[in-house]
Amino acid sequence: MPISAIKARLPYDAATIWRIITSSDDYRWRSDIARIEKLSDKQFMEHTHSGYATLFTITISQPFERYEFDLENENIKGHWCGLLSERNGQTEIIFTETVFAKKWYLKPFVKTYLRKQQSVYLKDLRQKLLETVR
Questions:
Q1: Residue 81: inside a domain, yes or no?
Q2: Does 43 fall in a domain?
Q3: Burial 93-104 (b: 16+ CB within 10 A, else e)
Q4: Which stretches of the chain are assigned E, i.e. beta strand?
Q5: Overall number of domains in the chain
Q6: Interval 30-40: pLDDT, tens
Q7: CA 69, CA 98: separation in Å to the nearest integer?
């Protein structure tokens, strides 16, 4: 299973970042998501602009420190782990995603897909933080 991780140090407190990354109501900052449908306290569905729906099941939620969920759609199945560590007014984030391609012909593209998705997510998160803290 391909694994991709992205790490960054952001000049914001962990509580602010936590609030943004765990909200199923405030998702418009995400350029890759058309909408999020909250199914329960532990499950939500993300819908992309191109119509793909991905089910997320929260497995660990330790406020300001760790957020994990399983994910699945028609093409992939996997797990995402977000770690936050605040120090001196800055928060280091490490987001790791492990994904299995359900279709054999997608396997060669999964790692590239994960890296692109993580890059877009981090770019969008940085922009949202700039707008939030103004």
A1: yes
A2: no
A3: bebbbbbebeee
A4: 3-10, 33-38, 43-48, 53-62, 66-72, 76-87, 90-101
A5: 1
A6: 999 999 999 99
A7: 11
pLDDT at 117 over 90: yes
Q: pLDDT at residue 28 above 80?
A: yes
Question: Strand, helix or coil at 113?
Answer: helix
Range of the domain at 85: 3-31+55-133
Classify residue 47: in a domain, yes or no. no
Coil, helix or strand at residue 12 = coil
Domain annotation covers residue 123: yes
What pTM value is reported for the model? 0.93
SS3 75: coil
Average pLDDT rounded to a whole number, residues 71-97: 97
> What mean pLDDT is predicted for residues 40-67?
97
Q: Please, what is the average pLDDT of the chain?
A: 95
Query: What CATH number is associated with residue 81?
Result: 3.30.530.20
Residue from 123, 104, 97, 99 nearest 32 by CA? 123
